[in-house]
């Protein structure tokens, strides 16, 4: 692609989303076309109710996704399993045998949306992790400790010390994706660690710091987990994403929630960006003067880590201003996308 700083458009290899929430049923049917328009493939998170804990459940979930895909749209869901204290090692073998399950997700119990069935103590999973390491099955981590005594803004940094370092010492060959990193600590850890480790970065964590949650009042659509951090952390994430380091790749963490569950006295965590993800990433990369690094981050580094082919075909993003809708349907409800009603300066054609 072009390396000119302010091109009228950019064309890159068709990208993938390496961290996505699609939900299920009617909600999934409403949001799926947004992602399928933007991305060829996505790593589909397993935090349904009940969670996707077995290869059989993932097989059924995948079939429901493919059945909901509008005619003429090409999209490949890359499935994941939800790790629990009781996941059997043989379940990993069954998952590997499907050929379409590409990772096992660690949700520390209580860390985020639908994580109640998550892992209480990683030591309980060691036999299963051994098989994952043997089969080269990536562990995808929501990297926050759940200790209520730890300040919310410090939970990712503490996770590195309490969970990630011991885990990587015990399983040095296990491929790990540190999902949706939000801190300088995580960006530096991933850049410097030995062995097979990578990280996904969301568009909203590249564009916003924590002020955004409180600008002019409390703004629930900017609340996600891990929560937005200080500006110095945002800058470190931009540096990592635009560095060309192949350990960093795109994961939107687009997380649809019905509007009434976010605009509430105890609102859910999650930002919806599936509608305009590539436009947001282009904005962030342009601000950093690094549009020429967008293709590696969005389309090349993820497949290399997961051992999958790079997509065929391209997408074009044009410098064109358009407005995000105030809401979009989500099953029988509506959701409010991030940047609802705002203008954005790039448009995916
Ligand atoms: N990111 C979020 O704030 N929410 C995600 C869960 C997650 O990725 O932690 C969701 O499922 O809604
Ligand atoms: Zn998460
Ligand atoms: Zn997520």
Automatic annotation (TrEMBL):
<dbReference type="InterPro" id="IPR002195">
    <property type="entry name" value="Dihydroorotase_CS"/>
</dbReference>
<feature type="binding site">
    <location>
        <position position="142"/>
    </location>
    <ligand>
        <name>Zn(2+) 2</name>
    </ligand>
</feature>
<comment type="pathway">
    <text>Pyrimidine metabolism; UMP biosynthesis via de novo pathway; (S)-dihydroorotate from bicarbonate: step 3/3.</text>
</comment>
<feature type="binding site">
    <location>
        <position position="142"/>
    </location>
    <ligand>
        <name>substrate</name>
    </ligand>
</feature>
<dbReference type="GO" id="GO:0004151">
    <property type="term" value="F:dihydroorotase activity"/>
</dbReference>
<comment type="function">
    <text>Catalyzes the reversible cyclization of carbamoyl aspartate to dihydroorotate.</text>
</comment>
<feature type="binding site">
    <location>
        <position position="225"/>
    </location>
    <ligand>
        <name>substrate</name>
    </ligand>
</feature>
<keyword id="KW-0665">Pyrimidine biosynthesis</keyword>
<feature type="modified residue" description="N6-carboxylysine">
    <location>
        <position position="105"/>
    </location>
</feature>
<feature type="binding site" description="via carbamate group">
    <location>
        <position position="105"/>
    </location>
    <ligand>
        <name>Zn(2+) 2</name>
    </ligand>
</feature>
<dbReference type="Pfam" id="PF01979">
    <property type="entry name" value="Amidohydro_1"/>
</dbReference>
<feature type="binding site">
    <location>
        <position position="19"/>
    </location>
    <ligand>
        <name>Zn(2+) 1</name>
    </ligand>
</feature>
<keyword id="KW-0862">Zinc</keyword>
<dbReference type="InterPro" id="IPR004721">
    <property type="entry name" value="DHOdimr"/>
</dbReference>
<feature type="active site">
    <location>
        <position position="253"/>
    </location>
</feature>
<keyword id="KW-0378">Hydrolase</keyword>
<feature type="binding site">
    <location>
        <position position="21"/>
    </location>
    <ligand>
        <name>Zn(2+) 1</name>
    </ligand>
</feature>
<feature type="binding site">
    <location>
        <position position="253"/>
    </location>
    <ligand>
        <name>Zn(2+) 1</name>
    </ligand>
</feature>
<dbReference type="InterPro" id="IPR032466">
    <property type="entry name" value="Metal_Hydrolase"/>
</dbReference>
<feature type="binding site">
    <location>
        <begin position="21"/>
        <end position="23"/>
    </location>
    <ligand>
        <name>substrate</name>
    </ligand>
</feature>
<feature type="binding site">
    <location>
        <position position="257"/>
    </location>
    <ligand>
        <name>substrate</name>
    </ligand>
</feature>
<protein>
    <recommendedName>
        <fullName>Dihydroorotase</fullName>
        <ecNumber>3.5.2.3</ecNumber>
    </recommendedName>
</protein>
<feature type="binding site" description="via carbamate group">
    <location>
        <position position="105"/>
    </location>
    <ligand>
        <name>Zn(2+) 1</name>
    </ligand>
</feature>
<feature type="binding site">
    <location>
        <position position="47"/>
    </location>
    <ligand>
        <name>substrate</name>
    </ligand>
</feature>
<comment type="subunit">
    <text>Homodimer.</text>
</comment>
<feature type="domain" description="Amidohydrolase-related">
    <location>
        <begin position="17"/>
        <end position="316"/>
    </location>
</feature>
<dbReference type="InterPro" id="IPR006680">
    <property type="entry name" value="Amidohydro-rel"/>
</dbReference>
<comment type="similarity">
    <text>Belongs to the metallo-dependent hydrolases superfamily. DHOase family. Class II DHOase subfamily.</text>
</comment>
<keyword id="KW-0479">Metal-binding</keyword>
<feature type="binding site">
    <location>
        <position position="269"/>
    </location>
    <ligand>
        <name>substrate</name>
    </ligand>
</feature>
<feature type="binding site">
    <location>
        <position position="180"/>
    </location>
    <ligand>
        <name>Zn(2+) 2</name>
    </ligand>
</feature>
